[in-house]
Amino acid sequence: MICVLSDTHGTDGHRLDGHLLETVREAELVIHAGDFTTERVLDAFEAESQEIRAVYGNNATPAVRERLPGERVVEHEGATVALTHGDGRDETELALFGRQADADIVVSGHSHQPGVTDTGEIVLLNPGSHADPRWYRPGYAALDVEEERIEGRLLEPDGEVFEEFTVER
Questions:
Q1: Which residues of 53-92 are buried (b: 16+ CB within 10 A; e: fewer)?
Q2: Which of 12, 16, 54, 109 is the most buried (most CB within 10 A)?
């Protein structure tokens, strides 16, 4: 299982607890779409994750920007994820980024609004923010990679599923 997060906006720690903390610890891979904010938060995520792939966000300190790329392509069990924070990119630009990466799915954050959009060519996923949802519901995503598809869920930090989706590969 892949656990997908974004927009932690912390200063001292990962801001994970309960169900979500256990999910991060158990996930084969954690993908984070940026805005850890500080190195201490990034370090806290690394300490709890078996494996983590992340990008920096627009609120990252220079030290975080030195450690992480602004965008990347992540391969896991044959699935390809194009990862970016997404600030300054609209839906068309995110879809183009995904097509250029020959990705199965594009993961971005920035808006704090969890959601899934199927553009007809590629699926765009924003897991929302587990710790700083602003005026949206708090969220994260879980992805199960299968041979011909990716089964996904958007969840609240307590584990309540509020949307399910499938990405055909």
A1: bbbbbebbbeebeebbeebebbebeebebbbbbbeebeee
A2: 109
Candidates 96, 98, 11, 83; CA nearest to 52 is 83
The single residue listed with the structure tokens 């971005």 is 108
* Residue 135 to residue 154: CA distance in whole angstroms: 17
Residue type at position 131? A
User: What residue has token string 């710790």?
Assistant: 131
pLDDT tens per residue, range 120-163? 999 999 999 999 999 999 999 999 999 999 999 999 999 999 99
Integer-rounded Cα radius of gyration of the chain: 14
In angstroms, the Cα distances linking 18 to 37, 78, 96, 155, 158 are 22, 30, 37, 13, 7
| Entry pTM | 0.97
Nearest Cα to Cα of residue 42 among 21, 63, 23: 63
